[in-house]
């Protein structure tokens, strides 16, 4: 019996039919790609934008019979998505997409930072999937995004290293704050418009936010040093409730607490920032108060705000 699907038994015309069908299929894939690109680039519908980005992020354009020599990487579609998302919220001017000559590769700049920072996405190869938004020169991954799982996580370590340490001497604090707000707004749009699970981490300005520090059992000397440095800078540091931790009142009703959140059993040291308008985060405190920044960085191994351990090892 002749197997019609066995290439060795096909007639010449049969081989040509199969070849032609494979070409058609490859071209149809290319056409589908262009339709998704049109949707990503042109739509003003936020739901269609997310749908196009999600599909393009996993799209395979080439086939065995049709290959396209000029292609963006899957990670680049996340940059297009981020830029378009900001554009739909009238913030398109806050980011600049750049491409390299003779090569399809996108990078992004935050407009306030100019050439002080160039960013792209890196695809996560583990089973977690998703992508990391990183500053290319330093390799710092500022946040994690997963469109399929509708998940967004900021990385305290990278935000601190890049914006509080690396750029501290060369970029004004207000410029840093304006730049970070672009990232914060992007995360907020994902949360508010699409119900994403978002961890704002060190950027969360809500009074209810407990910033868990890296060291579960904080050495006593860390809090003692805050008493000393606060006094030198004319701020009053008082004992926390029942002598647990400490509280410092900064300007305009901003209060920072550091305390053991679990008095019995396994300790968990946390920090909180309270202000009437809920606009000040721990990141803002680090930017505005040099003595708080110096105290935090001196004991960063213990005090660093923890990020999602399932995403940031």
From TrEMBL:
This is Uncharacterized protein. It comes from Levilactobacillus tongjiangensis.
């Amino acid at each position: 019996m002749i197997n019609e699907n066995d290439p060795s038994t096909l007639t010449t015309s049969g081989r040509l039919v199969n070849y032609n069908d494979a070409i058609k299929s490859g071209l149809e894939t290319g056409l589908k790609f262009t339709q998704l690109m049109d949707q990503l680039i042109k739509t003003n519908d936020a739901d269609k934008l997310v749908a196009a980005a999600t599909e393009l992020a996993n799209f395979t354009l080439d086939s065995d019979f049709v290959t396209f020599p000029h292609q963006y990487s899957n990670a680049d579609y996340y940059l297009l998505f981020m830029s378009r998302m900001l554009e739909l919220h009238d913030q398109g001017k806050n980011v600049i997409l750049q491409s390299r000559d003779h090569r399809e590769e996108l990078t992004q700049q935050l407009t306030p930072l100019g050439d002080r920072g160039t960013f792209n996405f890196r695809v996560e190869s583990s089973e977690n999937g998703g992508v990391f938004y990183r500053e290319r020169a330093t390799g710092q991954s500022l946040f994690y995004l997963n469109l399929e799982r509708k998940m967004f996580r900021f990385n305290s370590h990278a935000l601190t290293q890049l914006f509080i340490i690396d750029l501290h001497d060369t970029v004004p604090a207000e410029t840093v704050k304006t730049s970070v707000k672009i990232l914060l707004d992007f995360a907020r749009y994902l949360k508010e418009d699409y119900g994403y699970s978002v961890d704002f981490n060190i950027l969360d300005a809500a009074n209810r936010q407990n910033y868990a520090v890296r060291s579960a059992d904080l050495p006593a000397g860390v809090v003692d040093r805050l008493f000393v440095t606060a006094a030198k800078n004319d701020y009053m540091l008082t004992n926390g409730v029942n002598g647990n931790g400490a509280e410092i009142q900064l300007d305009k009703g901003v209060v920072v607490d550091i305390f053991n959140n679990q008095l019995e059993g396994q300790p968990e040291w946390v920090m909180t920032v309270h202000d009437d308008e809920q606009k000040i985060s721990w990141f803002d405190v680090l930017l505005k108060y040099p003595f708080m920044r110096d105290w935090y960085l001196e004991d960063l191994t213990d005090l660093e705000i923890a990020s999602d351990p399932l995403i940031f090892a």
